[in-house]
Design a protein that fits this description.
By secondary structure, the protein is mainly α. The protein has one domain. The protein contains 8 helices and no strands. It is elongated, with a radius of gyration of 22 Å. Keywords: Membrane, Transmembrane, Transmembrane helix. This is Small multidrug efflux protein.
């Protein structure tokens, strides 16, 4: 018995102590974490001894639920910002001389000045996503986005940029299904033919 086989068997014995109906829920919760996502959650589920199909579905569902909430929240925020900008733009001429207008512009300038700069890694991820978006649109940015950023971040950027919610959700679902399937099949093949579990 090699090291990996022993490690995986120990992990599976540990997971076997958790009730069977709770195991997919744990994988689903892991899939909801942006850094883990559906693909890694499915691999964790498969390594823990869960049926590969159940692990893939649970991981993908957890990931998609958080993407759905992210898209809905970002869409509402974008609508509020666009409506607020339109309202401020329409009333700017009339309120320019009033104290309210100057307070509003001072608050806007203060909010703009207090924005923290992004980390270099996040900037690179955004630049890659932007390049893919310009070249391939929402489908390409969604399918290639997980290589640079978590799907939740990608979907928020796409919706905040004005892409339709339904279109982003459709392509994020396709991306989650694709990457979770690739990861699940790879993990199953590795466990079956390389490790021998």
């Amino acid at each position: 018995m090699n090291f990996f086989h022993e490690l995986i068997s120990t992990f599976q014995d540990l997971v076997a102590q958790v009730p069977d109906f709770v195991q997919p829920l744990v994988v689903m919760l892991a899939g909801a974490i942006p850094a883990v996502e559906g693909d890694v959650a499915a691999v964790i589920g498969i390594v823990s001894g869960l049926n590969p199909i159940v692990a893939a579905i649970a991981g993908a569902m957890g990931n998609f639920v958080t993407v759905l909430f992210t898209v809905l929240l970002t869409s509402r925020v974008r609508t509020a910002v666009v409506n607020r900008t339109a309202l401020v733009g329409a009333t700017a001429g009339a309120a320019e001389s009033s104290a309210f207008g100057s307070d509003q512009s001072a608050a806007t300038d203060e909010a703009t000045a207090s924005v923290k700069p992004e980390s270099k890694g996040r900037q690179k991820g955004r630049q890659r996503l932007n390049k893919w978006f310009v070249r391939f649109g929402v489908p390409g940015a969604s399918l290639l986005g997980p290589l640079a950023l978590p799907t939740q971040v990608t979907s928020a950027i796409l919706v905040a940029g004005g892409s339709p919610r339904a279109w982003v959700l459709l392509w994020q679902a396709a991306a989650i299904a694709l990457w979770t399937t690739v990861a699940s099949v790879s993990a199953w093949l590795a466990l079956t033919y390389v490790v021998g579990v």
